[in-house]
Design brief:
globular; alpha/beta; six-stranded mixed beta sheet; 11 strands; single chain; about 600 residues; disordered C terminus
């Protein structure tokens, strides 16, 4: 099936509509407009590799196939309908894509939404005049590989989701205080925190249904920097107007606590010293016994989407709220650090903390260290090689957090408090092996508008290389896409290359990020391509807002008091962007 784009002379300006055709008559005269090709056998091979544990789930193909199968035939858009796809003998591939999509949704959406998605596909199938029942359809294509494997995998995932729903009913009878605590730890330094309120609003408020177990979210924002100074006016000039700023961390926390949307133990914590980056806030949190009741802790930067895909963070919180999340350690970021030998500087920085625990420091070879069963700080030996993701944003479960002895964190904290500055050649607390690395870190950050914190950045980089190992993972952390321990929704390949270094690029690209992972992107091409070339390949299809699904699912149910108060204070925004285009491409739920 080939997909084209054509100018649309109808409603709106600059709108484009999509044309699909089976491609049975040979090369098209419009090949210069060809945008994307769906090859069912290639999709099948990718799915086979995924279920065999050798590849990532083929979600780009899934997004496209599911999107098309949900769209009725339209003369205006000339898009093949679900019925057309069935008649073109694509029914097996559509079913395979539907099973993959259902497994993705099973742990991140309420059961009613998953059921509605499946029912919608069936309705389109029958609306197009096809009277074949689901049983008859399955009987005709059950031998297609890997349909049976996909069904078994989906069944296992649904069993996990069913268990969480049983627990949700139990929690509901015990009251809100019985809900598990999830800590969100944010290392903040003057970044705009608007993303934080928007994240919580969409996942916890807009997506609430009676099926959502819920959680007690304790928001801890560590203020690492003082307020930005206002420019001084000379005696002959009027003082410039104050710079407009977003609400401070303290104001954000206070507002959400007033609504009852977050736990009353949430706080904005002033932590300007010791100097450093996110590592200081993270270690401070890990040392604090008051937070040992958290079921999971999410560690984030003040601008987290510089390093991760927005959908990853949304899906993690969705799964936590539903009670389906059980991963003991998950690195959230998109970019990978190269596998390499552990630097002498990292060894020398961690040596005092490991000696404090009485642990050995013999360097285990990479193969044996990787094969060893992960435990608190591995086996107490620093491995010879490490491999992980960059930039220190991750989720850790309670058992892994508690497994690290307090003495380790106390010794690391003491080192952070007593570390010397890079510029001080006589600083006794900067190991000789770290001097060159520290200078490079400082120089790199200063070239890009760095601050005084860069003079103490070597500890941040050392911990960046070892956080996963400290929290019990193998020294060579598996790539998420191919890690069989993870559920499908955490194995979706995410873009990692952009023009400015982040996984997406600019904030405006977030506006059309579809809910619940339903993301055709640039119709099959990673949106990251637009960041590099600055020329989008095609326009993006507007998604059905999450609120439309959840509004149906929670009809006649009373909202929780905190959600009701939040809606009263901040009514749900209605998108005014190209409503006609949305209606022509996406079917209402």
């Amino acid at each position: 099936i080939r997909f084209y784009r054509e100018p649309f002379n109808g409603v709106g300006q600059g709108l484009r509509t999509w044309t699909t055709e089976a491609g049975l008559e040979g090369p098209s005269i419009r090949d210069e407009q060809l945008q994307w090709v769906f090859d069912g056998t290639v999709f099948q091979q990718r799915a086979l590799e995924f279920y065999a544990g050798r590849g990532a789930p083929p979600m780009n193909d899934v997004w496209m196939a599911i999107l098309l199968s949900r769209i009725p035939e339209s003369d205006a858009s000339s898009v093949l309908s679900g019925g057309d796809l069935m008649e073109l003998k694509c029914s097996g591939m559509i079913l395979l894509a539907s099973l993959l999509y259902a497994e993705y949704l099973a742990l991140v959406v309420p059961a009613s939404v998953l059921l509605k998605s499946c029912q919608h596909a069936t309705e389109i199938h029958h609306r197009m005049g096809m009277d074949e029942t689901a049983e008859e359809l399955y009987g005709n294509i059950h031998g297609l590989k890997p349909i049976q494997t996909a069904l078994a995998s989906l069944h296992a995932t649904l069993q996990v989701a069913a268990g969480s729903r049983a627990l949700a009913a139990e929690y509901a009878s015990l009251g809100a205080l019985a809900l598990p605590v999830v800590d969100v730890v944010v290392a903040h330094c003057r970044e705009d925190l608007g993303w934080l309120r928007e994240w919580l609003r969409q996942v916890l408020r807009d997506e609430w249904t009676p099926e959502v177990r819920g959680l007690r979210l304790r928001l801890l924002i560590y203020e690492r920097c003082t307020a930005a100074p206002q420019p001084e006016a000379s005696s002959s000039q009027e003082r410039p107007p104050p710079t407009a700023v977003s609400p401070s961390a303290a104001e954000l926390v206070a507002g959400l606590k007033r609504l009852g949307a977050i736990d009353m133990g949430s706080a904005a914590v002033e932590l300007p010293e010791p100097p450093g980056f996110e590592n200081v806030a993270y270690v401070h949190y890990c040392r604090n016994a008051a937070f040992r009741d958290a079921e999971f802790a999410i560690f984030l930067h003040g601008a987290p989407y510089d390093h991760m895909d927005i959908q990853t963070l949304h899906d993690v919180l969705r799964s936590l709220a539903l009670g389906t999340y059980s991963v003991p350690f998950l690195h959230l970021n998109a970019k990978r650090l190269a596998q390499m030998e552990l630097e002498p500087c990292v060894r020398d920085l961690l040596r005092p903390a490991l000696f404090e625990l009485g642990l050995g420091l013999g360097g285990a070879d990479s193969a044996s260290a990787t094969a060893a069963a992960p435990g608190p700080l591995g086996r107490g030996e620093l491995p010879t090689e490490m491999s992980t993701y960059c930039c220190s944003q991750f989720v850790v479960g309670r058992e892994r957090l508690r497994a690290v002895p307090d003495a380790f964190w106390d010794e690391v904290w003491q080192q952070l408090e007593s570390q010397g500055e890079v510029g001080d050649a006589n600083a006794s607390n900067v190991p000789t092996s770290c001097r060159a690395s520290a200078s490079r870190i400082n120089g790199s950050h200063q070239r890009h508008g760095g601050t005084w914190a860069a003079e103490h950045g070597v500890w941040a980089v050392a911990l960046e290389r070892t956080w996963h190992w400290i929290f019990g993972e193998s020294p060579l952390l598996p790539i998420r896409d191919v890690d069989p321990r993870l559920p499908l929704f955490l194995r979706v390949p995410r873009p990692r290359a952009t023009g400015d270094g982040g996984p997406r690029g600019a904030v405006q690209e977030f506006v059309n990020a579809p809910d619940w992972g339903f993301d055709p992107g640039w119709w099959g091409a990673d949106r990251a391509l637009a960041n590099v070339t600055q020329v989008p390949m095609v326009v993006s299809a507007l998604p059905v807002p999450t609120s439309l699904f959840t509004a149906v699912a929670r009809e006649n149910w009373k909202l929780p008091s905190w959600a009701e108060a939040w809606f009263a204070e901040e009514p749900e925004e209605q998108s005014s962007e190209e409503p006609e285009a949305q209606a022509s491409l996406i079917v209402e739920p």
